[in-house]
Design a protein that fits this description.
This protein has 132 residues and is α+β, with helices and mostly antiparallel strands. It has helices at residues 28-34, 68-78, 107-131; strands at 4-8, 15-18, 39-44, 49-54, 90-94. It has one domain (4-131). It contains 3 helices and 5 strands, in the order ββαββαβα.
């Protein structure tokens, strides 16, 4: 069965990439899509997903663009106030299995996450625009 990772850029279309949990180089596409050399995982256990972002996003020049869809996805998935907003492209995978391999997502899970990210992103943009 094919599994996927969801790529969430700050703007433009979200897309999927194929994800092979058995590939010893499985993180190469992760770094390529995010465009960084160090990633920061955030496990969201209620959804069995891991959100991967650029660990150095706040200290690189130029600072990556704010990502309202990633921020909104985390806000809705965690159901509590966030300690930070998310910058740059994010990639969502499954969580790790008992062997430590990061799993992919089903097509159905990707579709659900796209809807949540869009809804959450719209909400976050609306809240920020009213606050300014």
């Amino acid at each position: 069965m094919t599994s996927y990772a969801l790529v969430i850029p700050p703007a433009g279309e979200m897309c999927t990439i194929e994800w092979d949990a058995t590939d010893p180089h499985q993180f190469v596409p992760l770094y390529r899509e995010i465009g960084c050399t160090q990633v920061e995982p955030l496990e969201i256990h209620d959804y069995d997903i891991t959100l991967w972002t650029d660990e150095e996003a706040l200290i690189v020049e130029p600072v990556p663009a704010w990502n309202p869809r990633t921020t909104g996805l985390v806000l809705l998935a965690c159901g509590r106030p966030l300690r930070q907003s998310y910058l740059g492209t994010a990639v969502v995978t499954g969580t790790a299995n008992e062997d430590g391999q990061t799993l992919g997502l089903s097509a159905e899970t990707v579709a659900d996450l796209v809807r949540i990210a869009e809804r959450g992103g719209n909400h976050v943009v609306d809240v920020f625009s009213r606050a300014t």
